[in-house]
Design brief:
Blueprint lengths: L1 H9 L2 H12 L8 E7 L1 H10 L9 H17 L5 H11 L9 E5 L5 H9 L4 E6 L2 H10 L4 E4 L12 E7 L8 H11 E13 L5 E7 L2 E9 H10 L2 E14 L2 E12 L3
Helix pairs in contact: 4-6
């Protein structure tokens, strides 16, 4: 019954968001992200600099893994988990990628998507990298048979076109130099780049916020969708598919969380 309900709600993201708002209003429930404050001007520059390394906090891996383990438990049991299902479906639909290939996940956290891909039967050789040494240490301990690196998404040390598929895994929204990070994602991809769980504003320009994530102060970017798509094109990426995880209206403005699937233009 629960699995069928999840499948039904996945078809109606607006209804799912309404239910989430109701659930979050119940006393005693806690959200992963809280306390959003919009930033602009001098505040944006100073806060972006001050909080750039916030995702390297040693407390974050354990706090996030509590949520991840709960999601993995459902996924192992054959139940739908929207954030997993969308990325798996996006990869399965990549043209001419039915066989094994190499895959890099940028912003891999504790490496849990490697387990998701294994459960889903995706035959890629997986590499994960993250800006946080603490996250990478947990990933290496949890999945000792796989390769994980400490890397800065704006200055990757991998060679050009090194991986068949590169996933920017819900990290771009925390990177002030996101344009450079998009360029680096495109550079190390040979065939495809996927920007997973990207918060966008379909009818507005890019906005920056300060928030608490798992109790840690950080910056979050909501991208003007037209600006974001222009950046993909600027760095030689052609959009081939879009998956919408959530849609909502906040203070009269439409918001969405999408996964963008791109092919790399050959030069």
């Amino acid at each position: 019954m629960i699995s069928l309900l999840r499948q039904w709600l996945a078809k109606y993201p607006s209804l799912k968001n309404a239910l989430r708002r109701i659930r979050s209003s119940i006393p005693g429930r806690r959200s992963v992200s809280t306390g959003f404050i919009q930033l602009s001007g001098a505040d944006l520059e100073s806060e972006a600099g001050r909080l750039r390394n916030s995702w390297q906090a040693d407390e974050l891996p354990g706090r996030q893994r509590v949520l991840v383990d709960r999601q993995l438990m459902h996924y192992r049991a054959g139940q739908r988990v929207d954030v997993f299902d969308v990325l798996v479906e996006a990869i399965k639909q990549l043209p001419r990628m039915s066989g094994a290939g190499t895959l890099l996940e940028i912003g891999c956290s504790s490496g849990y998507y490697s387990e998701v891909f294994g459960i889903a039967g995706l035959p890629f050789t997986y590499t994960g990298c993250d800006y946080s040494p603490a996250f990478v240490a947990m990933a290496r301990k949890t999945y000792p048979g796989l390769h994980f690196d400490v890397q800065d998404a704006t200055a990757l040390t991998y060679a050009d076109s090194h991986f068949d598929v590169v996933i920017s895994g819900c990290c771009l929204l925390h990177i002030p130099d996101y344009e450079v990070a998009i360029a680096e994602t495109a550079r190390v991809a040979e065939r495809y780049a996927i920007f997973h769980r990207t918060p966008v504003l379909p009818h507005l320009s890019t906005m920056h916020f300060r928030k608490l994530a798992y109790g840690i102060e950080t910056v979050e970017i909501h991208f003007g969708e037209a600006e974001f798509l222009a950046l993909l094109n600027k760095f030689g990426l052609t959009l081939i598919d879009v998956f919408t995880l959530d849609e909502d209206v906040h203070q009269g403005a439409k918001t969405a969380v999408r996964t963008y699937v791109c092919s790399k233009v050959k030069t």
